[in-house]
């Protein structure tokens, strides 16, 4: 390791944390970081550590681990309700933070986190990896150049599938609250949160003050508290609608995407693939593939070379307004039994017709109820949200 190698502590190394372990190993191989510590309630075994990561110190005491390792960056991939306190623990010790999405389960907790890290003077990157895609600035440039005319709205579609075991992966999975504490682990706020955050970013409405109204329709086919089939329509300060429809009960799961509507065309962005399709009047379809800047690597570059952070807390304020609207909404309504069925060999529940509804919502910027879904809740009037 060179003298500029940055020591890292990872909090939460199982579940999605395994992805961070592999990513840290990749960056460690490049000589720019070193995994100095892992914070887990139960230490990882040797078999759970990717080869080549060495023997990082392990402890269940996050603060003590930061002290003993002298780490400069903490990667936090722990249950949603713990995000704010762990981020503030790191900030109080002058440790910079990569915080997994969603950054907090409520707007108040998000503000406490964002204000706290700002006051401490540490850098904080929020883990919306899709916003590291080079497609995002490229699409913004297409929009600015008028490639699809005047922007009329942004849609998002996420048709995924999750087995019933998914909701038993952790005590907080599929919960809205646990032991009196907000969790808000729903389709739009966690697994398909990228569709919401990316749609807002491409609408030029990433900050809290960019949102003026939010409508939600939250439903569930599974026996959980949170939503697994839901949609949201955000009205931006510029008057644009941003409608995102999501389900974890798809018939035929497919890659999620964001769709920018214009008066003379549209741009489709499959954000997991970094792939863009430009369709416009008087032109044939144009398809592009882009690279991606890793958010941890960007945070390291920020500390060593002064590179700008790609996903700051303030840049996720609009997303957190959506989380807050979902938190304050009535609990998700159970779908009638005739509206879903179980695929026994996959142990997952499917909502017939939901794939087409998700696509139609992104295409028309409509909510499920407006598309005539027989099980959908009547759309509530736009909820005004304060900034």
Automatic annotation (TrEMBL):
Keywords: Oxidoreductase
Domain GFO/IDH/MocA-like oxidoreductase: 138-267
InterPro entries: Gfo/Idh/MocA-like_OxRdtase_N (IPR000683), Gfo/Idh/MocA_oxidrdct_glycsds (IPR050463), GFO_IDH_MocA-like_dom (IPR055170), NAD(P)-bd_dom_sf (IPR036291)
Single GO term (MF): oxidoreductase activity
Keyword field contains Oxidoreductase: yes
All copies of domain Gfo/Idh/MocA-like oxidoreductase N-terminal, residue ranges: 7-128
Keyword Nucleotide-binding tagged: no
Top-level taxon in the UniProt lineage: Bacteria
Protein name (database record): Oxidoreductase
Organism for this UniProt entry: Streptomyces lincolnensis
């Amino acid at each position: 390791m060179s003298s500029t190698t940055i020591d890292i502590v990872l909090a939460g190394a199982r579940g999605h944390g395994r992805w961070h372990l592999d990513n840290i190993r990749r960056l460690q191989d490049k000589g720019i970081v070193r995994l100095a510590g892992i914070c887990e309630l139960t230490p990882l075994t040797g078999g759970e550590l990717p080869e080549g990561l060495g023997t990082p110190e392990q402890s269940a005491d996050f603060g003590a681990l930061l002290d003993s390792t002298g780490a400069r960056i903490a990667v936090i991939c722990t249950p949603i309700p713990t995000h704010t306190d762990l981020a503030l623990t790191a900030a109080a010790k002058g440790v910079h933070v990569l915080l997994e999405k969603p950054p907090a389960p409520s707007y108040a907790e998000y503000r406490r986190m964002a204000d706290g890290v700002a006051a401490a003077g540490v850098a904080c990157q929020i883990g919306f990896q899709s916003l590291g895609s080079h497609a995002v600035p490229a699409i913004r440039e297409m929009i600015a150049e008028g490639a699809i005319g005047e922007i009329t709205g942004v849609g998002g579609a996420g048709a995924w599938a999750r087995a019933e075991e998914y909701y038993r992966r952790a005590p907080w999975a599929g919960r809205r609250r646990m032991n009196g504490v907000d969790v808000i682990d729903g389709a739009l706020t966690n697994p398909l949160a990228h569709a919401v955050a990316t749609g807002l970013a491409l609408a030029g409405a990433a900050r809290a003050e960019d949102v003026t109204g939010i409508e939600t329709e939250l439903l569930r086919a599974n026996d959980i508290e949170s939503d697994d089939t839901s949609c949201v329509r955000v009205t931006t300060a510029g008057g644009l609608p941003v409608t995102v429809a999501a389900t974890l009960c798809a018939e035929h799961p497919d890659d999620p995407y964001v769709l920018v509507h214009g008066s003379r065309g549209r741009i489709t962005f499959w954000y997991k693939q970094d792939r863009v399709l430009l369709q416009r009047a008087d032109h044939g379809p144009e398809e592009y593939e882009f690279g991606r800047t890793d958010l941890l690597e960007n945070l390291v570059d920020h500390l060593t070379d002064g590179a700008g952070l790609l996903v700051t807390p303030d840049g996720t304020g609009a997303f957190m307004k959506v989380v807050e609207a979902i938190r304050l909404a009535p609990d998700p309504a159970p779908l009638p039994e005739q509206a879903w069925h179980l695929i026994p060999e996959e142990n997952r529940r499917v909502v017939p017709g939901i794939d087409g509804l998700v696509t139609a919502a992104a295409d028309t910027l409509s909510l499920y109820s407006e598309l005539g879904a027989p099980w959908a809740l009547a759309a509530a009037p736009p909820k005004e949200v304060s900034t």
